[in-house]
Each structure stands twice: as C-alpha cells, then as structure tokens.
Amino acid sequence: xxxxxxxxxxxxPCGPPSFAAVDLGAxxxxxxxxxxxxxxxxxxxVHRFPNRPVRVAGxxxxxxxxxxxxxxDGLRAAGRAVPGGRPASVxxxxxxxxxxxxxxxxxxxxxxxxxxxxxxxxxxxxxxxxMPPRELYAAxxxxxxxxxxxxxxxxxxxxxxxxxxxxxLLIPDLMAYWLTGExxxxxxxxxxxxxxxPRTGDxxxxxAEAFGVDLALFxxxxxxxxxxxxxxxxxxxxxxxxxxxxxxxxxxxxxxSAVAGVPAEGGRAFAxxxxxxxxxxxxxxxxxxxxxxxxxxxxxxxxxxxxxVRYLRNIMGLWLLQECLRTWEADGLRPELEALLREAAKxxxxxxxxxxxxxxxxPPGRMPERIAEACRRTGQPVPRDPAETVxxxxxxxxxxxRRAVADAQRLSGREVEVVHVVGGGARNExxxxxxxxxxxxxxxxxxxxxxxxxxxxVQARAAGAVHGDLTALRSLLRTTQPLRHxxxxxxxxxxxxxxxxxxx
Length: 504
Fold this sequence. Notes:
GO terms for molecular function: transferase activity. The protein is an alpha+beta fold. It is built from 20 helices and 21 strands. The N terminus is likely disordered.
C-alpha cells in the first residue's frame, strides 16, 4: 500500500529538484547547487577550491588528485545544502583538450600535462608535415592552437605513458570515471580534440589513421543529457550521501555549458563572448563553416548542446589581467582589483592596445613586462602604471571581441543584433561597456555563472524537471536571472584606428 501524502512528503523533498554542477576552471573549481523547475532557476555555490598547476622537472602538470578531492568535498557540501540530503544528479564540466592516460586496469599513468606546458612546441609543425593544415581543417574544423589534443598526442609519441595507455579520458570524463567507475567521452569536449568530424558528430577516422592515433583509446561517445553512471558506493560513503545518485553527461566543455547558459531571446540573432581565463567569442550555428577563409581567420567549429555548432575564436581573455595581478603581487604591490578597475576607467581609452591573441602572451609570468614590450614594438605609448596596464588589457580584449564578432558574422553569414557577455567577465562592468562600444552593438551582461547554469539546465531537462529546447531553457534563464544592459557609445572611428594599430 502506498504511504499517505504526509509520509511521502517527509521521505522526499517538496518543490523543484536540486542538481550538483561541478564546474572546473583553469584557476579554480567550484561545486554549485542548482534548483530548477517551471518558472524556477536558482544557483548556490557550496564549495570553491583552487586549481594550482605544479611544475615538476620542467613539466607543468595539473594537480588532478587535488581537483578530485575538491569535487568530493563539494559533493559532500551539496548533500548538506539540498533538501533530502542528496542531489537529484551530478554533472561535470571543465576546460578542454587536456586528458589523462590510463592503463588496462583503469589506473592513471601520470598527472595530466597542462596545455600551457612547452612540450607541444613544434608539434603543430610536425603535424603539418603529416597532413596539410587546409586538409586538417576541412576534416575537423578546429582552429590552429599549439595545445590541441592532437598536437599533445603528436608530442607524446614514443613516450612510455602513451605506449602503456589503453584509455584516454578528457578531464571531465576522468572525474566522472572516478565517481562512477564507468567510462565515456562526452561529445562537446571530444569536438575540441581535432579528431572529430563536426558534420557527423563522429570521429574523423582518416585523420586519426594519418596520425597513428588509436581511436580505441577513447570510450564510447556520450551526448549532453545522456546517463553517465551512478556514484559508487565508496563515493557515496566518502561524501555522506545516500544513493542512488546518477551522474548525467552535460556540455562537459565548460564553454558548451556556458553557451547553453546564454539568456538569448528566441528569434533574436546573437553573438556571445564567454569570458574567463579565455574569451570565446562567436555565434551559434546549425552547421560548421569549413572554408579556407574560415581557417585563415582562425575560427573553430566545436559542438554544443542539442546538435549546435559553436563557431568561435579563442582569445587570450582575462588571463592577461590575472597574470598581471600575480606579477604585481609577487613584486609586493598587492593591488586591489576593484580599485584598479576604477582607476582604469579614468585612464585615457585606447592609448595603447595589443593583440590579445598573440601567442607571446600564452605562457605564465611577468605579463606587465610583455605587454609593455608589445606596445614598444608597435610604436605605442608604454603603460606608465598598473591602472594604465589594466586599461590597455581591457581595451585590447574589447578590440579582440570586436574583431571576432565581426569576423564570425562575415564568415558565417549570420548577422547579429546583440552580444551576450557571460562568465566571469560579465561582472567586469568596464569590460562589458568597452565591448559594447567596440562592437557597436548592445551588450547583455550575465549570468557570470553561465557554465554552471547550462550544466544544471541540461541535468534538469534530462530528469524531467524542465522541458523544451534551448530556446525554452534560455527563456527560463532570462526571466529568473538579473542581467545588465550596455548600449554602444563613443567614437567608432577610434576603435577602427586602434584596430589598424594592432592588425595593420
């Protein structure tokens, strides 16, 4: 006999279900609890932990066990934060391209190497000798990046770890495997490996064959919303949770989740800038753009939620500012970011700009000096203090956003009416205002936690808590989250002159 309503309500939480979103970024990880249902979308951060790479014997590694410990601590906190003591499911997203190699027993063969490590130096040139860049782009649609997974595998050729490997798991798939004991390869992140055909959503087998990559290393592909196992008994015990707790595949590349978390209005064509350590600027399409002109413009075609294509350009992003702050702190200056941003807003605009996509800015260390040298090399005034350096960084990022949005429209044929800025940079009012001025388009800023929102929404839809396509999911975001609007102002000609100073 079923229990009476009072007994049932005491055994199960009332109201919309809550979901745990594990969102791993390049500088920190966080576990968020999201509650979603008809007309309801709330997000709460329950645990944040640092992501500190470690250099050992000249190689830069991710501290992947430290990250996993942070995930377990976060799931324990999530259990305490949700009604009923356990989330309805767990979803995991992270940065792209990096991976762990495992042996036949599923044991990790070593810490994953950081994409900023120098081991891929020269790998792109070696790859070009195997397959011309034009042919590789036509097959995979991936922009040239020295750290693409394919280049990492080219660099690892002949190593004992790769020889012993029987499985290759991208970072969120590795975390999911440790939580569930089940292996899979989530599609949106797989599309960043330069081994996937964006037209078919399947592996680009001729590319893998040309480079001698054994695709059997990759577990079966999963799509956002697919089941990815359940938390193991030992994980439940470690986190103080009652089972079962399912794990759901989400857009496991954090940008895929962030773009799903763009609060775009149905029927209004939009561009997006997903800001954080990187800025990912582009448009959402139904099919990839694989032209030679697109390759020359260094645009990438990555897969998104619901079969969409994220047509975008990678820009160095707030990494420039983060590295400046680290340098100043190491020098004993300890600047306060909000005060610096206020001073930067008062500094002369477009006095100096740099190419925010220049590979010279990719490695860590002494960023203010590299920015000064870039200004000197291009005959522009050198920033005189930290505030002017910050203004140079933000002007340069806005200029890069302008170029990417304009190029995305030109190359895809998709004209846009508005730019959505999501991710951590959505909190930076000066950056958002400058992006509106540079693009000459309205900017809608927010949410800052777009990746976590996208993660939660895919889980909630898979669980039946919300329904509909991306337009419906985004409508829920738009009606529940605070957003800021910036209209373009100022002299458009000044941005054109600044672009000429950078691009010639």
